[in-house]
Write a structure and sequence with these properties.
alpha/beta; four-stranded mixed sheet; globular; 29% helix; 13 helices; UDP-n-acetylglucosamine1-carboxyvinyl-transferase, Chain; 429 residues; binds phosphoenolpyruvate; 2 domains; binds uridine-diphosphate-N-acetylglucosamine
């Protein structure tokens, strides 16, 4: 069923909500359970499409999986009986690339379809492949599949990453935890989800030091075992709610968060004049006036996250003055701008730079999500705009946000989901 989100905007968000577990940690930790050859109990998982897809992939290759209403998944990977993951599901998400590292590590070979995910740039996986090759695997890409074999087993080595890559850092960790000897990942990604995956692997018996710094050292162990683990809160969901609170000139307390993960956004929002109050596990955001314009450059952690650039553009669309946003990570991550221009935003783009001339207000319009965070940005735009906004392509938003309408309704938003029904003149096929 095709769905749209309908928002009657202009209501300041007020109240308290909780964020769920991090998508980008969950989608790596679930494939990592393959290495346990036993039972893992993973808590605080978000109920989002990407998690449900990985659950199905795990079940298709022989794992026994149960996902309960409280966000706890029990995964028994004892009887996984194939190292091939080539079903169509794989192409529906980016993180299916983690199956490569996990299956190669467990079976000494792996075959996966090339991953999908948000179309925000080229997104090659050359660094993942180079990493597997450095560990001793032969890797071929043909017919839309990556085929890796390591008949002699994987051997630890030093791997220097040309670019900081979240996916390649985690995939190399997965491949090397049971390799023979020591692996060092130099110029590693430092995102909170990289650290969370390392902590999970350590819980399963891996020897990993330095996750969260530029150099991660891994000493291969013979085998890992099952464990119980709780996923960290979602940094990007937290950031989206922080931005929505300020964009609607509201007062929102976001609970179950790790405030240190939010420092880049918190600092930028304070520079905009937004009030932010932090406790041990909550952040309160208050804003009663137009924010000030700022400059944002997206950067790997601890820099400003590219995943929050799109919602932040919307917040700045009604700031006082001219803001400049430079997207340094993904070359096509400005697709949301065409849509928010329909709502009255004054933004020009050239290559990787967007210049945002703050306007007094946005007005509701029919718009369409082109990717996950573009969808989140349009929800923020709809919440702050006068009048009604209808957002098509909700499937992208469902990839990464758990019960987003329910959480926003709790904060007073007028938001609902409806089936898309085409009128006769729209229904041309
Ligand atoms: C499932 C997941 O965790 N997704 C996140 C992950 O994506 P993902 O793991 O795809 O992002 P990377 O950190 O790998 O990408 C960073 C940059 O490196 C490039 N690159 C990456 C790998 C490679 O082999 N070759 C290469 O050139 C990419 O095109 C991009 O320009 O990190 C991104 C950057 O924080 C986030 O936006 C995504 O939400
Ligand atoms: C780009 C994202 O996701 P993915 O890498 O899974 O496409 C995201 O979470 O913003």
């Amino acid at each position: 069923m095709l769905e749209k989100i309908v928002i009657n905007g202009g209501i300041p968000l007020k109240g308290t909500i909780e964020v769920t577990g991090a998508k980008n940690a969950a989608v790596a930790i679930l494939p990592a359970t393959i290495l346990a050859r036993g039972i893992c109990v993973i808590e605080n998982l978000p109920r989002i499409a990407d998690v449900l897809i990985i659950k199905r992939i795990l079940a298709e290759i022989g794992a026994e999986v149960e996902f309960d209403e409280n966000g706890t998944m029990t995964v028994d990977t004892t009887n996984i009986n194939t190292s091939k993951v080539t079903m169509n599901l794989v192409k529906r998400m980016r993180a299916s690339y983690y199956m490569l590292g996990a299956l190669l590590s467990r079976f000494g070979d792996a075959e996966i379809s090339l991953p999908g995910g948000c179309t925000i740039g080229e997104r090659p996986i050359d660094l993942h492949i180079k990493g597997m090759e450095a560990l001793g695997a032969n890797v071929k890409t043909e017919y839309g599949r990556v085929v890796a074999t390591a008949p002699e087993g994987l051997k630890g080595c030093d791997i220097y990453m040309d670019k900081v890559s979240v996916g390649a850092t985690i995939n190399i960790m997965l491949a090397s935890v049971c390799a023979n000897g020591q692996t060092s990942i130099i110029n590693a990604a430092k995102e909170p989800h990289v650290v969370d995956v390392a902590n999970f692997l350590v819980c399963m018996g891996a020897k990993i030091k330095g996750a969260g710094t530029d150099v991660i050292r891994i000493i291969g162990v013979e085998k890992l075992h099952g464990c119980n683990y709780s996923i960290i809160p979602d940094q990007i969901e937290t950031g989206t709610f922080m931005i929505a609170a300020a964009a609607t000139r509201g007062d929102v307390t976001i609970k179950n968060v790790i405030p240190t993960h939010m420092e880049a956004l918190t600092a930028k929002m304070q520079e905009m004049g937004v009030e932010i109050h932090e406790g041990a596990d909550f952040i309160r955001v208050t804003c009663d006036k137009r924010p000030r314009s700022v400059k944002i450059n997206t950067m790997p952690y601890p820099g400003f996250p590219t995943d929050l650039q799109q919602p932040a553009t919307v917040l700045l669309s009604t700031a006082e003055g001219t803001s400049m946003i430079t997207e340094t990570i993904f070359e096509s991550r400005f697709k949301h701008i065409k849509e928010i221009r329909r709502m009255g935003a004054q933004i020009t783009t050239e290559d990787r730079v967007a210049v945002v001339e703050g306007v007094d207000r946005l007005t509701g319009a029919p718009v369409s999500a082109t990717d996950l965070r573009a969808g989140a940005a349009l929800i923020v735009a709809g919440l702050m705009a006068d009048g009604t906004t209808e957002i098509q392509n909700v499937k992208y938003i469902d990839r990464g946000y758990d019960h987003i309408e329910d959480k926003l309704k709790k904060l007073g938003a007028d938001i609902r989901r409806e089936e898309v029904v085409y009128t006769e003149d729209e229904d041309i096929f």
